[in-house]
Amino acid sequence: MSQQPYNPLMERIEGPAPVMEVMRDILKRAALIAPVFIGVGAVFWQTEGAASVAYGLAIVVVNFVLAAMMLAYAGRISLAMMGGAALFGFLMRLALIFLAVIVVQGASWVEMLPLGLTLIIAHLGILFWEMRYISGTMAYPGIKPAKNLSIHEPAPSSDAPSPDNEHTGAA
Q1: Per-residue pLDDT tens for 86-119?
Q2: In whole angstroms, what separates CA 1 from the centre of its chain?
Q3: The pTM is what?
Q4: What's the CA gap between 76 and 158, in Å, rounded?
Q5: Mean pLDDT throughout 4-33?
Q6: Residue by residue, what is the 3-state secondary structure of the chain?
Q7: pLDDT for 159
C-alpha cells in the first residue's frame, strides 16, 4: 500500500474561527452606523429614503454574516474548501445582492439612489473601519486584544513579590 503525499491544503482549522469574532464586531459597528445612515436617508429622501437605506444596510449585514459563516464552515473541512468558499462565495453573494436589488426595483417604497449609495458606502466604510481593529498576528487571531500585551514579555504573576510588597523573612 502506497502512502499519499502530505497536502497542506487538506488540513482543517481546529478551534474557534476568528472570522466569527470579526463578524460579531462588524455587526456592532453596523448597529452603530445604522441610525446615522437611516437619518441621512430620511432627511434627503423622506420615508422612501429611510426605508431604502434600512434595506441596503440589511443587505450589507446579511452579506457579511453569510461570508463569515461560509468561511468558518468551510475551514472546518479543509483549507482548500475555505479558499473555494471565499472565491465562489463572493460570486454567489454578489448575485444575491443583485437579486435583492432587482426584486425591489419597482417597489413604491424604494429610492434607488440611496439604496445604491448605502450598499457601496456601508460595505467599504464598515470594512475600512474594521481593518483598524483586526489583528494581523497568529498570537491574537481575529480582533486585536484590548490591552497592548506583548507576546515576548511574560504576563505579571501574582506569585512573584512586587517592590511594594516585599516579604521579609525571619532572621
Answers
A1: 999 999 999 999 999 999 999 999 999 999 999 9
A2: 45
A3: 0.77
A4: 38
A5: 86
A6: CCCCCCCHHHCCCCCCCHHHHHHHHHHHHHHHHHHHHHHHHHHHHHHHHHHHHHHHHHHHHHHHHHHHHHHHHHHCCCHHHHHHHHHHHHHHHHHHHHHHHHHHCCCCCCCHHHHHHHHHHHHHHHHHHHHCCEECCCCCCEECCCCCCCCCCCCCCCCCCCHHHCCCCCC
A7: 53
Where b means 16+ CB within 10 Å and e means fewer, 104-125 reads beeeeebbeebbebbbebbbeb
| Distance separating alpha carbons of residues 93 and 68, to the nearest angstrom | 12
> Which are the contacts of 74, defined by CB distance < 8 A and separation ≥ 6?
81, 82, 84, 85, 86
Residue 134 one-letter amino acid = I
Q: Which amino acid is at 72?
A: A
Q: How far apart are CA 104 and CA 111, in angstroms?
A: 10
Return the C-alpha cell found at 150.
506583548
Mean pLDDT, rounded, for 5-22: 82
Q: Nearest Cα to 85, choosing from 5, 170, 17?
A: 17
Give pLDDT, residue 139. Answer: 66
Domain residue spans of the chain: 15-135
